[in-house]
Amino acid sequence: MTPPLALTCGDPAGIGPEITLAAWRRLRHELPFALIGDADHMAALGAPAGVPVARIAGIAEAAQVMPRALPVLHQPFTSAPVPGAPDLGNAAAVIAAIDRAVKLARAGDAAAVVTNPISKKVLVDGAGFAHPGHTEYLAALGGVARPVMMLVAPELRAVPVTIHVPISAVPALLTPELLAETIRVTHAALRRDFALPAPRIAVAGLNPHAGEGGLMGTEDETVIRPVLGALRAEGMDLAGPLPADTMFHPPARAGYDAAVCMYHDQALIPVKTLGFSVGVNVTLGLPFVRTSPDHGTAFGIAGTGRADPDSLVEALRLAHRIGRNRAAA
Amino acid sequence: MIHAPRVAFAIGDAGGISPELSARVLADDEANRGDMIVIGDARVLAMGARQAGVTLDLPVLAPGGLVEGLPNGSFIVDMANCDPGAVTPGAASETTGRAALQNFAAALRLAAVGVAGTVFFTPFNKHGMRLAKADYVDEIGFINQTIGATRSGREFNVLDEVWNARVTSHIPLRDVADALTEDRIFDALRLTVETMEGAGFERPRIGVAALNPHAGDGRNFGDEDEDILRPAVERARARQMAVTGPIPSDTVFVRAVKGEFDAVMTMYHDQGQIAMKLLGFDRGVTLIAGYPFPIVTPAHGTAYDIAGQGIADTGATFNAVALGRRLASRGAPRTQTVSAADLPGLFDGKVEFAPVAG
């Protein structure tokens, strides 16, 4: 039996709290998780929604509590959260919840960390947060320099090699070292986390038509192709560089387990076009398992009941599956 | 006397599915409204009819016959430029490439002189065209050269009710950011609006895809979205165009499909092509606009893997013909007659290609 998942509250003025309640309703008999957040806040929110909330003393209790109430590891907020109106005073508690989840996962008490969305701006202004983003912060906590992001949609896993950078910076950042490392991390994760003993990876070209033999850009021939050649020699099953506009068709997708893409939108466009509300992010290469929904805090609709919990539900399911695969390995 | 704009119809690459698609268009009462001037080898069309299992009864004119006045109804101008015996189904060749280029050039010239109001062609194969004409890059360069256009047209992809226009296309990704200027984006928006109005959209709503991830995330991931795209969008809005953006490019197509936009303006090739192809763009139409007449073709290629089997889907092809007619300038053709001077080289069956300038 794998341990429960540690779910962080994210920004409590965003949609995190309400989608957490909805996720508990769907998953209470399927898998255990504990929310790290303010138990009083969650109890007040859960009452009108008919979701009982139970404050637990340790995450191990989550499995037993889960079927009858949402288990919460109490992490008090300074001020009562108001949906849609983020409060800088709560920034420190939002960060503390992340820290605590990571500690639990690294100690083996939690099978994985699942994170609700944060607002980087709120954390910067409220707590002097000095990291480029959520994922980078988790990487720092895990002592990892370059985390790898995988987007998981129902029919596609996609890994961008460069992530939150301008398009104009992508070609220079796309070094053989970064590409090789990203493919290696992806390959290892497919084996270990997704239980695929012989992963097949498709690698996108950088330029239109993958450069068409150098007619439209050189990097596909000078950077990508040599890296793939070297990694194939190590025994990896790699296809590419492939024209990015024809590698996401259903028949093409049937031929690989993950697509490695050169930049953020090259990976995100197919993922979101294929399954907008059910994408999940997985951070690869960390010393613990981490998944998250693929949306933000959505302050604009927080508290209106319009938030869609599907992505969080899938993030929890995937974290649980990965935890099980690692335990079985 | 024909009173509606004619369709100049170039038969594409004979090694692929173009022959059977051409035959199916001509055999269909909805697609063929008796207004088509088919340009190609009559034997290739007959081969297509056999592959498709349709019967065609089409007047055949020699190229020189055009000067004696155009017949009523659809007919074929027999270019006699592609012996089916020399065609290998599923393979590109210089013969099929050259014939496709000749057919295309003739169709463009017929439209340029005003005999036809739109040009439609069945799929080309670039490899074959390059075997016949080494400096062939893309349709737009060839059109400029063939009709002497000084200003390049633009390519649009039309899928059901979503259009995609792009600011840059076949250039290296590293050159994209530098190629984007406020003027260039604004011009692209204006041409898109004008073209869509011509297609019957009253006030087309256009979503502009951001260049950088998360539309630059407030300048964290690049300044172009704020400094170049946003001013272009604001300029268009000041001129009463229904333009929104920049919008993160991973969500703009989803919003368009849900009905929020009629068109998406993308900044680079794969940004639009990945989404459009996933959305089923094989059913879609490629439109080249910005010339005195619209040029349309199915978005899919020659489909060499199923060439000659008579099983090609006709959806995109019929959609292309319909869009060309919809966009053709209204009213009767400007002229019903063609002179030899209008169509240099056509009458002796030798359409020569000068190198593309620049």
From TrEMBL, chain A:
<comment type="function">
    <text>Catalyzes the NAD(P)-dependent oxidation of 4-(phosphooxy)-L-threonine (HTP) into 2-amino-3-oxo-4-(phosphooxy)butyric acid which spontaneously decarboxylates to form 3-amino-2-oxopropyl phosphate (AHAP).</text>
</comment>
<dbReference type="GO" id="GO:0000287">
    <property type="term" value="F:magnesium ion binding"/>
</dbReference>
<feature type="binding site">
    <location>
        <position position="209"/>
    </location>
    <ligand>
        <name>a divalent metal cation</name>
    </ligand>
</feature>
<dbReference type="GO" id="GO:0008270">
    <property type="term" value="F:zinc ion binding"/>
</dbReference>
<keyword id="KW-0560">Oxidoreductase</keyword>
<keyword id="KW-0460">Magnesium</keyword>
<comment type="similarity">
    <text>Belongs to the PdxA family.</text>
</comment>
<dbReference type="GO" id="GO:0051287">
    <property type="term" value="F:NAD binding"/>
</dbReference>
<keyword id="KW-0479">Metal-binding</keyword>
<feature type="binding site">
    <location>
        <position position="164"/>
    </location>
    <ligand>
        <name>a divalent metal cation</name>
    </ligand>
</feature>
<dbReference type="Pfam" id="PF04166">
    <property type="entry name" value="PdxA"/>
</dbReference>
<keyword id="KW-0520">NAD</keyword>
<keyword id="KW-0521">NADP</keyword>
<feature type="binding site">
    <location>
        <position position="135"/>
    </location>
    <ligand>
        <name>substrate</name>
    </ligand>
</feature>
<dbReference type="GO" id="GO:0005737">
    <property type="term" value="C:cytoplasm"/>
</dbReference>
<feature type="binding site">
    <location>
        <position position="272"/>
    </location>
    <ligand>
        <name>substrate</name>
    </ligand>
</feature>
<keyword id="KW-0170">Cobalt</keyword>
<comment type="pathway">
    <text>Cofactor biosynthesis; pyridoxine 5'-phosphate biosynthesis; pyridoxine 5'-phosphate from D-erythrose 4-phosphate: step 4/5.</text>
</comment>
<feature type="binding site">
    <location>
        <position position="134"/>
    </location>
    <ligand>
        <name>substrate</name>
    </ligand>
</feature>
<dbReference type="GO" id="GO:0050897">
    <property type="term" value="F:cobalt ion binding"/>
</dbReference>
<dbReference type="GO" id="GO:0050570">
    <property type="term" value="F:4-hydroxythreonine-4-phosphate dehydrogenase activity"/>
</dbReference>
<feature type="binding site">
    <location>
        <position position="264"/>
    </location>
    <ligand>
        <name>a divalent metal cation</name>
    </ligand>
</feature>
UniProtKB/TrEMBL annotation, chain B:
<keyword id="KW-0560">Oxidoreductase</keyword>
<dbReference type="GO" id="GO:0051287">
    <property type="term" value="F:NAD binding"/>
</dbReference>
<keyword id="KW-0479">Metal-binding</keyword>
<dbReference type="GO" id="GO:0016491">
    <property type="term" value="F:oxidoreductase activity"/>
</dbReference>
<dbReference type="InterPro" id="IPR005255">
    <property type="entry name" value="PdxA_fam"/>
</dbReference>
<protein>
    <submittedName>
        <fullName>4-hydroxythreonine-4-phosphate dehydrogenase</fullName>
    </submittedName>
</protein>
<dbReference type="Pfam" id="PF04166">
    <property type="entry name" value="PdxA"/>
</dbReference>
<dbReference type="GO" id="GO:0046872">
    <property type="term" value="F:metal ion binding"/>
</dbReference>
<keyword id="KW-0520">NAD</keyword>
